[in-house]
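Researcher: We plan to redesign the surface later, but first we want a full-length starting point. Tokens attached.
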């Protein structure tokens, strides 16, 4: 017998969601997915995209408390709060060269964007969720928190490890009060930015994109499914986690890496 599960394509209708880093890549895909599911989505990033499915977009630098506060004020004014937070903003901008080239400023920059932005948004919007006794939070971490690459992303990996730890601790505090908290740890995802990096590597080494992509996957120890993930695949997972279908998934970190991490 075949079992079929009917899902409401507009299951998030009536909810308000905030997606950070929502202008491109994984963030843009999440904004689109949650919008398609019926949510009223507010998105934020450093620069506004040419097109977005978000109902509200606020351009701000989320690496500073002032930037976060600006977004919070705008979202509170326009939407009156949120029911879903997806903290996707993050990235690595440190120079190559390992620990020795990382100044205090580089470390602080990594922590501000990869950890403290999420902390600040949670602190701003969680009180409303707790008052309503409902809500869902997803923090986008990275497999690098378990599989760090030291050459240029050591600070990024450490900050994402801190985000995963914070996410688990927060889940223990707010789960009994009606708010679910989970994390999603992507591996290599072929965003537009990742594709541009593949193109640069191909040019640098005088080969084609296929060879450059395979070299990049090899640097991670290989991807068993044979390809990077896609932003839409991460967005689908996030959409499920913030929906009522995932009502008992809480305090978890879901890895979506095509099998990259080689351990159990």
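Model: Full-length starting sequence:
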């Amino acid at each position: 017998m075949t079992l079929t599960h009917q899902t409401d394509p507009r299951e998030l209708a009536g909810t308000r969601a905030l997606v950070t880093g929502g202008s491109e890549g994984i963030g843009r895909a999440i904004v689109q997915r949650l919008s398609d599911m019926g949510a009223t989505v507010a998105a934020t990033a450093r620069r506004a995209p040419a097109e977005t499915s978000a109902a509200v977009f606020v351009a701000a630098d989320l690496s500073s408390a002032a930037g976060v506060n600006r977004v919070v004020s705008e979202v509170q004014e326009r939407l009156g709060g949120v029911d879903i937070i997806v903290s996707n903003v993050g990235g690595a901008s440190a120079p190559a060269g390992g620990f020795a080239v990382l100044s205090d400023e580089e470390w602080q920059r990594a922590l501000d964007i990869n950890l403290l932005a999420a902390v600040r948004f949670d602190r701003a919007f969680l009180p409303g969720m707790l008052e309503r006794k409902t809500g869902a939070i997803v923090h986008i971490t990275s497999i690098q928190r378990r599989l760090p690459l030291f050459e240029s992303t050591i600070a990024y990996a450490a900050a994402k490890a801190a985000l995963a730890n914070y996410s688990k601790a927060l889940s223990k505090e707010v789960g009994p009060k009606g708010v679910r908290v989970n994390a999603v740890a992507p591996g290599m995802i072929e965003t537009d930015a990742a594709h541009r990096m593949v193109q640069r590597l191909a040019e640098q080494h005088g080969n084609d994109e296929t060879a450059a992509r395979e070299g990049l996957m090899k640097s991670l120890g290989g991807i068993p499914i044979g390809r990077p993930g896609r932003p839409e695949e991460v967005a689908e997972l996030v959409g499920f986690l913030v929906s009522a279908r995932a009502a008992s998934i809480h305090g978890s970190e879901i890895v979506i890496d095509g099998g990259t991490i080689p351990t159990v």
